[in-house]
Prior knowledge:
The protein is of the alpha/beta class. The longest helix has 17 residues, at about 320-335. Helix content is about 40%, strand content about 10%. The protein has two domains: about 5-235, NADP-dependent oxidoreductase domain (TIM Barrel, Alpha-Beta Barrel); about 270-335, no CATH class.
Amino acid sequence: xxxxxxxxxxxxxxxxxxxxxxxxxxxxxxxxxxxxxxxxxxxxxxxxxxxxxxxxxxxxxxxxxxxxxxxxxxxxxxxxxxxxxxxxxxxxxxxxxxxxxxxxxxxxxxxxxxxxxxxxxxxxxxxxxxxxxxxxxxxxxxxxxxxxxxxxxxxxxxxxxxxxxxxxxxxxxxxxxxxxxxxxxxxxxxxxxxxxxxxxxxxxxxxxxxxxxxxxxxxxxxxxxxxxxxxxxxxxxxxxxxxxxxxxxxxxxxxxxxxxxxxxxxxxxxxxxxxxxxxxxxxxxxxxxxxxxxxxxxxxxxxxxxxxxxxxxxxxxxxxxxxxxxxxxxxxxxxxxxxx
Length: 340
């Protein structure tokens, strides 16, 4: 397994890390079991966030008494220094630690800078000077913000969506981070569940100096990622064919499922309904055709074209049109006129 050093932070870890967003959906005992097995299997970098409900608390329980064995990164969604300080205090308490290896501005709407009037970067520096955090990072979904962050020279890491569906501009972003001495943390390595071949995803990552954080919720998922420590996939012609087929199937506009469009004014679960066609075909499950999801999809008829979701979408999608297209396809599947 290749190791990755996150730029000038000096954090060196196997290129196979744990994204802890999904463990908020499982019990504490199960989450702790997953986290400890991940560490025992070779993972040393664990990424969570204050927004992930009880994810931080579960990490705190799992790694209490072995803090020096793992790297822990968390994030704050705060937009004021006072809230920043309160959130950091809660995060440290939840994680049962007195420091974070990496603290990141979460879904940052801008590149926070000293003297920009927000006080946010100054709050980060203050926390670092006090020893509460060791390194400063930022997560973004808008590439313009990400590019500005890299160019600023103010941050030690960038976390951004990255997988084999990434554009040339996003590949250039990875190279820019390398040249700037910044670590690149790759989220959405499976594109929100649309990519289903873990070997192809891992083989793609191996080409770059990036650290993928795989969202793990089930022991079966963890076993697959851990198996790559002993048999790391390389980009064979067969896996390249998988990648090319997925790129062809998912070319054009598609929903990545990030959820930043929410909340919908009429209650549509946009980040699932806007990609229902792909999910039914790429991650088949009878659950997608359940009474619950039929009811959720029918809410699309209530769309009032307010435009809020489009203004929030980091990918500039025409969401109402995408929703209606998915609804038409979904109804066709239900009545048998469209084959899956």
